[in-house]
Amino acid sequence: MHIFISVDIEGVAGVCEGTQGRRGNAEYELARRLMTEEANAAIRGAFNGGATAVTVADSHGSMRNMLVDQLDPRARIVSGSLRPYSMVEGVAEDHAGLILIGYHAAAGNYGALAHSYSGQAFHKILVNGTLMGEPTVFAGYAASLGVPLLAVSGDQFLAEEIAAQFPNAKSILVKQSINSAATNSLSPAESCNLIEADVQTAVQSASGAKVETPITAPFETSVEFHRQSFADAATYLPGVERKDSETVVFTVDSYRDLIGTIAALSLMVSGLMA
What amino acid positions are annotated as catalytic residues? Predict the structure, then answer.
């Protein structure tokens, strides 16, 4: 039984503000260690639950964050970017389940460090009228392959999204968000204990897990940017049309094109901000 684990950083216990997710400072070095420890807790839980193989995807920013020399040696690691399927690059039909660790609420929702794909680019993304967080599209893609979402860790606002979009997946609450840059968190040690126990339980039930997805193709997508200039640039992409000063719309027929178009819009904004 092969389990796929995707690990972000903003939803990790003890992480509450943007500096902790950016390279070049002591806070980031601490956060990446905490990220690695939560990944290891999930790996232990997966093997304890009956997994015979585990693949872990480093899924924050540059996707080169975890301390690979400290990662559980039983796991394989997917790292680096740009990846066609981004946060779930490598997930495949033969995986028994998907685990998301250190995730966060969507852009347009409450929650510490809430965003969708790019905090500097997007104010809100809707796909087929559904608020798109990162689990929406990445666990949705896994579901399209027949791989169920088993468990997700993060804050209470993420848990609300998961309950609405993937009602049979387990939410592992490692912190409560107070506002956009403040949390009331479990200690890192207790967070890891909880993740290990809940992932074990989720993996033990993987064979009977329901495959769920909140969105299906065609994907009618509305992207609201933080700035009008970002929407100006977005209209240069084929198939992207202007809706209002900050919003563009497009429709695609595959998860690859949905993920790729959002990634291209994010990269475009990065260039404008340089």
Answer: 115
